[in-house]
Design a protein that fits this description.
This protein has 141 residues and is α/β, with parallel strands linked by helices. It has one domain: HUPs (Rossmann fold), CATH 3.40.50. It is built from six helices and five strands; from the N terminus they run βαβααβαβααβ. Strand 1, helix 1 and strand 2 form a beta-alpha-beta unit.
Length: 141
């Protein structure tokens, strides 16, 4: 049914991958599909580090890539040959771009219980669900 699954995680929030990553792994195993695991570095994170964005991105992407590989190695069976990717910029925009770039036909991501700020600015998961041209599986905590 699916040929390529992308699971989006926030490396600083275990709740973003605690249930979503195992769900994506189970689907990838069941359908014999490729599995990509992605994370996104927000522009604001680079700015808060107090450095010029162009210079800090390379370091942040490298560090995030290393952390992502460690997470995937500890959570995903090697037989799936998972791939990792780190984007930067708008979270929902980057997840949608990465999904298109890797040819994903399913995005798996976690969602949390909505808070007031989510109603005011909108959650990334909700934006991805609204704008994705492919299926999105939202895994609740």
């Amino acid at each position: 049914m699916y040929k390529c699954i992308l699971v989006a995680v926030d490396l600083d929030e275990e709740s973003s991958w605690h249930k979503a990553l195992p769900a994506a792994v189970a689907l990838a195993q069941a359908f014999g599909t490729r599995l990509w695991v992605a994370t996104v570095i927000r522009d604001v994170d680079a700015i808060l580090k107090g450095a010029v964005i162009a210079q800090i991105y390379e370091q942040l992407v490298s560090e995030a890539g290393d952390r992502l590989k460690i997470l995937v190695k500890s959570q995903v069976p090697v037989v799936l040959q998972p791939q990792t990717v780190v984007g930067h910029g708008s979270i929902y925009g980057e997840i949608l771009r990465i999904a298109e770039d890797v040819g994903a036909d399913l995005v798996v991501m976690a969602s949390h219980r909505p808070e007031m700020k989510d109603y005011l600015i909108g959650a990334n998961t909700a934006r991805i669900v609204r704008h994705a041209r492919i299926s999105v599986l939202v895994v609740r905590e």
